[in-house]
């Protein structure tokens, strides 16, 4: 499926307002409601839209502290990679975990209530995960830009 300008308009609007009604989305995109509904369904069915979510305000939801963590594993074997990945998927405090190329193996993103909560997570959860040899913590002082919208 090749995206045309109208598809991009639909996707851009949904990225900024996922709760917009089909009627309002159709008006915004100069389409009839039925044509807009069909295009949106096709975009969803083809994987351009993966889900609709509510993004919560971290400061009001007891998670103001944003932290990135570099993780270096003690061995880089398929078993250790699988075990570590499975452990991160089960850990509710981990928002994102990415295997990366470079000087360490994984980059993790967490949000915590405060530094004491992070210290507890680090000591009781993260360092005991399979294969963890070393971690480096980067506490965010200021979020300069944070978006979930993909440029189209």
TrEMBL record:
<dbReference type="GO" id="GO:0043565">
    <property type="term" value="F:sequence-specific DNA binding"/>
</dbReference>
<dbReference type="GO" id="GO:0043200">
    <property type="term" value="P:response to amino acid"/>
</dbReference>
<dbReference type="InterPro" id="IPR011991">
    <property type="entry name" value="ArsR-like_HTH"/>
</dbReference>
<dbReference type="GO" id="GO:0006355">
    <property type="term" value="P:regulation of DNA-templated transcription"/>
</dbReference>
<dbReference type="Pfam" id="PF13412">
    <property type="entry name" value="HTH_24"/>
</dbReference>
<keyword id="KW-0804">Transcription</keyword>
<keyword id="KW-0805">Transcription regulation</keyword>
<protein>
    <recommendedName>
        <fullName>HTH asnC-type domain-containing protein</fullName>
    </recommendedName>
</protein>
<dbReference type="InterPro" id="IPR019887">
    <property type="entry name" value="Tscrpt_reg_AsnC/Lrp_C"/>
</dbReference>
<dbReference type="InterPro" id="IPR036388">
    <property type="entry name" value="WH-like_DNA-bd_sf"/>
</dbReference>
<keyword id="KW-0238">DNA-binding</keyword>
<dbReference type="InterPro" id="IPR019888">
    <property type="entry name" value="Tscrpt_reg_AsnC-like"/>
</dbReference>
<feature type="domain" description="HTH asnC-type">
    <location>
        <begin position="3"/>
        <end position="63"/>
    </location>
</feature>
<keyword id="KW-0010">Activator</keyword>
<dbReference type="Pfam" id="PF01037">
    <property type="entry name" value="AsnC_trans_reg"/>
</dbReference>
<dbReference type="InterPro" id="IPR036390">
    <property type="entry name" value="WH_DNA-bd_sf"/>
</dbReference>
<dbReference type="InterPro" id="IPR011008">
    <property type="entry name" value="Dimeric_a/b-barrel"/>
</dbReference>
<dbReference type="GO" id="GO:0005829">
    <property type="term" value="C:cytosol"/>
</dbReference>
<dbReference type="InterPro" id="IPR000485">
    <property type="entry name" value="AsnC-type_HTH_dom"/>
</dbReference>
């Amino acid at each position: 499926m090749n995206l045309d300008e109208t598809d991009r308009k639909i996707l851009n609007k949904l990225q900024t307002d996922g709760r917009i009604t089909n009627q309002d989305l159709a008006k915004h995109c100069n389409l009839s409601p039925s044509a807009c509904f069909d295009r949106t369904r096709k975009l969803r069915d083809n994987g351009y839209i993966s889900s609709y979510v509510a993004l919560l305000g971290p400061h009001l939801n007891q998670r103001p502290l944003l932290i990135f963590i570099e993780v270096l594993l003690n061995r880089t074997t398929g078993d250790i990679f699988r075990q570590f990945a499975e452990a991160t998927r089960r850990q509710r405090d981990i928002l994102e975990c990415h295997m990366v190329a470079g000087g360490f193996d994984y980059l993790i993103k967490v949000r915590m209530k405060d530094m004491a909560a992070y210290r507890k997570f680090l000591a009781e959860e993260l360092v005991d995960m399979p294969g963890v040899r070393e971690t480096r913590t980067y506490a965010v002082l200021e979020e300069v830009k944070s978006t979930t919208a993909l440029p189209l």
